[in-house]
Amino acid sequence: MKFRRGMNALCAASITTGTLFGCVGDQPGEDDQTGSCAGLAETRFTAARIGLPTGGAKIVSAVEVPARTDGQVTKPEHCLVSAEVLPVDPKAPSILLAVALPTRWNEKAVWLGGGGFDGVIADVTGNSLNTLAPTPLARGYAVFASDGGHQSTAASPGADASALANEEAYRNWLSDAPKKARDVAGQIIRAYYGVDAARFYAVGSSTGGREALFATARSPADWDGALVLYPARNVVSLTLGLTATLQALSAPGAFPSAAKRSLVWDAVLAECDALDGLADGVVGDVASCNGRFDVTALRCMGGEDTGDACLSDAQIHALEAINTPVRLASPLANGDTEFAGFNVYSAAQGVGTDSPLEPHVQSVDLGSRAPTFPVDPLTSSFAAALVDGFMRHVVVRDPSFDYRTFDVRTFGPHATRVQELSALDVGDADMGGFAARGGKLLLLHGTGDMLTSPRTTERYADGLQASLGATAAGAMLRYYEVPGFQHSVSTGFQVSWDGLSALERWVEAGEDPGDAEVVTDLAGVPGRTRPLCRYPTFARYRGTGDPDDAASFECAAP
Q1: Annotated active-site residue in 176, 449, 498, 521
Q2: Which is catalytic among the residues 393, 487, 490, 521?
Q3: Does the pTM exceed 0.90?
Q4: What does the mean pLDDT of the chain come to?
Q5: Given 206, 219, 312, 453, which residue is catalytic?
């Protein structure tokens, strides 16, 4: 651990780098820490020291925070810095960021990504999603995060896309904010400790996952490793796919109730649960299940809705539409010719359990009622809020536009704008520089995710294999899929995994995680474990041993 240095380190950084760090105080000694945190306040950074165009940056405040215990979580003593990255366009919002600088520093830094449309700063004293491990700050990391380039005061900030009508704000949210935050945070770290961080890690899920992929692909020298969970990448393709899903569910009589979804899930389990060698409420062999499950076997007599014991033709059509790729009339600028669809039959899609996680599962899956316009935040899925905001503020740029009317295959009068936006989505595809510098990427996705499709992540992983070659891709990437896991939450298999420690061991000690990592379920059967198997393999029960113990499973090909 490294203790923070006195203010002479701050002055030295100013003198040796020529930046605008200020020297505060009366010649403190090497071990004199008095005022070293507060002395950071009002420090300014020139635009030339930030790798993407900005108007420069400044520290707004720096406050010494004493160690404290909240419940069972101890937050160590640290200096909490608030900073602002100024825009180039005077009409664009600033990027606000926070940096937590622990007194006992491990000489490393970690960036925490956001979610949805961002609009708020992730808690730099907290943790990333889907882990119960100690927080990065508690481990001694300097931790930083931004609001993605705009500030939201909405009740649900992650669903507020209004600021993204500004082009600079959109690019910050899509891809640029992490680089700008990293460059400013790096200077703050050097100013405070007197040395640069020895390692930088990017950790993000969903939107934060996409941002991490962009950051490592476009600025590979900045990062040693990235932990990416269920990334919301290829934003235009994803939005088109979600729009098609919402349109299918909006058709008259098409929306399946919780009882109907429970009917489907029971049929899926009867057909597919034991394909992985164990009937445990989790569909492990997703590829085989997709090939053999036939939802039409649940059809009501005559195709009309006659109750909860069957599905109408409209409901069957909606589910099949969600499962089927959306073919586009012409390729997108990023090369996509289709959206891959979702594994709608591979996880319980909000079937109405009494789990406290059920409302969240309903939200990130299909919602509790058919999509509406305007979006009803109490009954619509989060996908509806995302598509609605993106279409109205970014694509169509008309606050009155009904997202359900958008032509997802030809794009109608908005084709030029769709292609402009799609051209920006390719920045995370070239990981050659990151692979060449020895960077490591841990990638994880749940097979039942209905908000960011695992099929898209599979294609991304396959694309890296093709572009880098098997040897380079094998040295850089480990991609895992978790059966039954949905978008951040699941009542079937709720993931807990200390991915940051796995990434550290791989980067710093050369310990390849391979198939040795274990994931723990916190909800379906609390405490049961499964091996994380590299895609396309899945965890198959060996036939003997404790069914709740990962040691009783092996990674098998579909």
Answers
A1: 449
A2: 487
A3: yes
A4: 92
A5: 206
